[in-house]
Specification:
Layout: E1 5-8, E2 11-14, E3 17-18, H1 19-26, E4 30-34, H2 35-48, E5 56-60, H3 67-75, E6 79-82, H4 85-93, E7 101-103, H5 110-119, E8 123-126, H6 129-142, E9 146-153, E10 175-176, H7 180-188, E11 193-199, H8 210-228, E12 235-237, H9 255-266, E13 272-275, H10 279-282, E14 286-296, E15 304-307, H11 316-320, E16 326-328, E17 335-341, E18 350-358, E19 365-368, E20 390-394, E21 397-402, H12 407-411
Parallel strand pairs: 4-20, 5-6, 5-13, 6-7, 7-8, 8-9, 9-10, 9-11, 11-12, 12-13, 15-17
Antiparallel strand pairs: 1-2, 2-3, 4-14, 14-15, 14-19, 16-19, 17-18, 20-21
The chain binds pyridoxal-5'-phosphate.
């Protein structure tokens, strides 16, 4: 597919819709997603796994939990990887089959475990012996056996940003590999659990397949050891984590490369594999559309481009120093070197320093690219700003798929007690 966000007649479009038309109708800032891009990414990831026998692809809902986005993926045959009761309810609301939902997370509460049992989800990814015991007791009290796998921590360095690495020994996720056989023995003997395999997820925005391959190989050895100990292993969950290019010229492994590696490493495992991709499905399918408030002269000779989007709308640059492309919706052809910042009263509200980008002026529209993953879902109302809305484009039509929530509406949920 050609990029869904392209210049036509000098103006940036989302599919066939001019972004200026969306800004006019909905205001800014606003996230804009392309249905065609979501579908193409979903199909490409699946095609990458074509050599495998009937894998379950469970979209990592936390990357983009918008109901319309989930619906598109449900129509593509995707299930869901959820990490909270709220995400579980979203996946069900989008029409995903309970059997195609896996529940990850290191801190599932009793209420969340109960919800998963009540809804009959397909798999619990147990992250500790303690969680396994609790889930077993709750399931037994209901007279059921919860389908479950043990998430291990393979202690590999995913080579990604520290805050999105999840598979090193010091990270909170999963069970140390050395303890896994004993824990598995114990949990498999509990009547409330139907232990059926193993899982891992080592981190996000992985630019290299080597750490994944290393982790999968460790999982394969564990799987063989568990079988040798008499366990029936029918499932293995390989998590998500495949990165996307954010910077110009950046080259990352494609889903086909990933799928080929998986097929090679898992040959002979004889299990149903589950995958939990998030970013690679939604990342490049969305932009954050913003308007330049003003361009302010800076002391070092570089102007500050102050836009109406901020760290509360797109947190990744402030959280991880992440790079998002910045481009004018109607580029003049002139380029500048600028600092791109939001209006929030934090120095961290900076999208880029010393970035070479399209020249823009007060009132111009611009986009932050590759904002479909971990964008709107991390938004807050910090500085009493509105909660950012979301739009889905489909060909020449578009719909608001999440409203802008005004500060007045948020204030209306607050109370001043009568004793003040
Ligand atoms: C976040 C997460 C994912 C998705 O990661 P991506 O990098 O977006 O693919 C998958 N599985 C688990 C358990 C996660 O926490």
């Amino acid at each position: 597919m050609n990029t869904p966000f392209a210049l036509r007649g000098g103006a940036l479009h989302a599919e066939d819709v001019p972004l200026a038309a969306i800004a006019e109708a909905v205001g800014t800032p606003v996230y804009v997603y392309s249905r065609a891009a979501l579908e193409a990414n979903a199909a490409a990831f699946r095609a990458g796994l074509a050599a495998l026998d009937n894998p379950l692809v469970a979209f990592a809902v936390k990357a983009n939990p918008n109901l319309a986005v989930l619906k598109v993926l449900q129509q593509q045959g995707y299930g869901a990887d959820v990490v909270s009761g709220g995400e579980l309810l979203r996946a069900l609301a989008a029409g995903m089959a309970p059997a195609d939902i896996v529940f990850s997370g290191v801190g599932k509460t009793r209420e969340e475990l109960e919800l998963g049992l009540a809804k009959g989800i397909g798999q619990f990814n147990i992250e500790s012996r303690e969680e396994g015991r609790e889930l077993a007791a709750l399931a037994a009290a209901r007279g059921v056996s919860a389908p479950a796998v043990l998430r291990i921590n393979p202690d590999v360095d995913a080579g990604t940003h520290d805050k999105i690495s999840t598979g090193k020994a010091e990270n909170k996720f999963g069970i140390p590999l050395a303890l896994a056989p004993a824990f598995y023995d114990e949990l498999a003997a509990l009547p409330g659990l139907a232990m059926r395999g193993v899982a891992l997820h080592i981190g996000s925005q992985l630019a290299d397949l080597a750490p994944l391959e290393q982790a999968f190989a460790k999982l394969g050895r564990l799987l063989a050891a568990l079988r040798a100990a008499g366990h029936a292993i029918s499932h293995a969950d390989l998590g998500g984590g495949l990165g996307i290019p954010y910077q110009p010229g950046e080259k990352l492994p494609a889903p086909a490369d990933y799928g080929a590696m998986v097929a090679r490493v898992t040959a002979g495992w004889d299990v149903r594999l589950t995958f939990e991709p998030g970013r690679v499905i939604v990342g490049n399918a969305g932009v954050l559309l913003t308007r330049v408030v003003r361009v302010k002269q800076g002391s070092a000779g570089r102007p500050f481009v102050v836009v109406d989007a901020a760290m509360n709308d797109l947190a990744r640059p402030a959280l991880y120093g992440a790079y998002h492309d910045f481009a004018a919706v109607r580029p003049s052809g002139e380029r500048i070197e600028a600092n791109i910042v939001g209006p929030i009263c934090e120095t961290g509200d900076t999208f880029a320093m010393g970035r070479e980008c399209d020249a823009v002026q007060s009132g111009d529209l611009a986009v932050f690219g590759n904002a479909g993953a971990y964008g709107a879902t991390m938004a807050s109302t910090y500085n009493s700003r509105a909660l950012v809305p979301e739009v889905l484009v489909d060909g020449s039509r578009f719909a608001v798929v999440a409203d802008r929530i005004a500060p007045e509406t948020i204030m209306a949920a607050e109370r001043v007690p009568d004793w003040l």
